[in-house]
Amino acid sequence: MINATHKASLLKLYEARAACIYKPDGKCIGMMTPERFHLLRERFREAQRNGLRKDMSSPVQCLASEIAGLLQDHQARLKPLRQAN
Fold first, then answer.
1. Which residue blocks in the chain are alpha helix, DSSP H?
2. Which of 14, 33, 53, 65 has the smallest number of Cβ neighbours within 10 A?
3. Which residues lie across from 48 on neighbouring strands?
4. Is position 9 within any domain?
5. Are 30 and 36 in contact (CB under 8 A)?
6. Is the pTM of this model over 0.70?
7. Is residue 79 part of a domain?
8. Distance from chain centroid for Cα 60
9. pLDDT tens string 8-56
């Protein structure tokens, strides 16, 4: 019986910490865990230190634009898969 002294319990199906990544217009373009963000930030800084991006045809401006680009690219790759289902 569910009442004031016997509360209903819900199963914990999924729990994760994540942040929404926003475009300048305020639209969320994807979610990312703090751990994934920190990993990408470290790799980004490592690439900067080693000069790995200096010869790119469209050089990366900053970490924020790089993450936004990665998320948009990921969404574009998933779009055909979603339409097929």
1. 34-50, 63-84
2. 14
3. none
4. no
5. no
6. no
7. yes
8. 18
9. 666 666 677 888 888 888 888 888 888 999 999 999 899 888 887 777 7
Contact 21, 29 (CB under 8 A): yes
The total number of structural domains in the chain stands at 1
Tell me which residue of 44, 39, 35, 46 sits closest to 64, measured CA to CA. Answer: 44
Per-residue model confidence as pLDDT tens digits over 54-84: 777 777 778 888 888 888 888 888 777 666 6
- Residue pair 68/21 in contact (Cβ under 8 Å)? The answer is yes
Asked, for residue 5, whether it belongs to a domain, the answer is no
Residues whose CB is less than 8 angstroms from the CB of residue 78 and which lie 6 or more positions away in sequence, other chains included: none
Cα–Cα nearest to 39, from 73, 74, 66: 66
* Enclosing domain of residue 42: 19-53+61-84
As beta bridge partners, residue 31 has 20
Structure-token pair, residue 51: 């000069």
